[in-house]
Amino acid sequence: MAKIRLFIDHPLALGQGIALSSDQAHYLSSVMRQGPGDEILLFNGRDGEWLARIERLAKRNGEVAPVAQTAPQMNPPDLWLLFAPIKKARTDFIVEKAAEMGAARILPVQTEFTNSERIRQDRLQAHAIEAAEQCGGTYVPEVTDLTPLSRLLDRWDAGRRILWADESRVGPARTLAGLSQGPWAVLIGPEGGFSDSERRRLSGMDCVTPISLGPRILRADTAAVASLALWQSELGDWQRD
Ligand code: SAH
Questions:
Q1: What residues form DSSP beta bridges with 190?
Q2: Cβ-contact 212, 170 below 8 angstroms
Q3: Which of 93, 114, 167, 222 to mutate to test the pocket of ligand 1 (most atoms within 8 A of CB)?
Q4: Which of 17, 18, 38, 131 to pair with 181, CA 20 to 30 A apart?
């Protein structure tokens, strides 16, 4: 059976006992039926992946000890996902998929046609952690709080280019060949699309490249996964050997 992988916010090195949180101890003992002597995998987003032995385990506390590093730290390329939150379950899906697809940072943005005014940042961050646990990643993208798109663009660093999924370009898609690697962000709009003033503003920014995602209008969650796949395959880590 595949080993259990847990994210743990603690430095990982040989010979260090690490206390489990109450939730982690509960998960390991009551849900996964683990006990002292069993081995699990740990990562903290910085020190790669480690094999660890359960030293002590009770219902609500316990201790694990790293035994050997099993994978080096692997960070994704410098790609951010900017997306307008939609309904709760679909927003959860976007964060989970973005973490799996190797987004380095996930930024929910409030656009003019965004319905939700609040998000639960802590819940979304927990989804990103769970996605990293199950996809074998050693990196956990930060999920930021909801920020107005206009404010983000006011202080945008032009060194980070923006791949703008622009629904008005629905139709034949061109490849990203010719665009160079480096810091990028993908921008996905809400169900209502972008407003005229947002379109004008984005069109006027040199660092913005508008793209079509093909001949059909995709739901925002589909568009997020499609554009991350497109970017990773052309400019990102699908290219690395
Ligand atoms: N209500 C809008 C569609 C919004 S789809 C309309 O009918 O025109 C939600 C978001 O997904 C869009 O803002 C865009 O960022 C992205 N998207 C969906 N389909 C797309 C396509 N074919 N090309 C580019 N972006 C697309």
A1: none
A2: yes
A3: 167
A4: 131
Q: Could you tell me if the CB of 210 is within 6 A of ligand 1?
A: no
pTM of the model: 0.95
Structure tokens at 160: 């980070």
Return the pLDDT at 240.
63
- Pick the closest to residue 232 from 133, 99, 49 (CA basis): 99
The response to whether residue 189 sits with its C-beta less than 6 Å from ligand 1 reads: yes
Give the pLDDT confidence score for residue 115 in this predicted structure.
83
Spatial separation of the C-alpha atoms in residues 163 and 141, rounded to whole Å:
19
CA distance 195 to 163: 17
Distance CA 241, CA 106 (A): 25
Pick the CATH number of 5-71 from 3.30.2000.30, 2.40.240.20, 1.10.10.60, 3.40.50.2300: 2.40.240.20
Is 220 a pocket residue for ligand 1 (Cβ < 6 Å)? Answer: yes
Q: In the CATH hierarchy, which fold is given to the domain comprising 79-239?
A: Alpha/beta knot (3.40.1280)
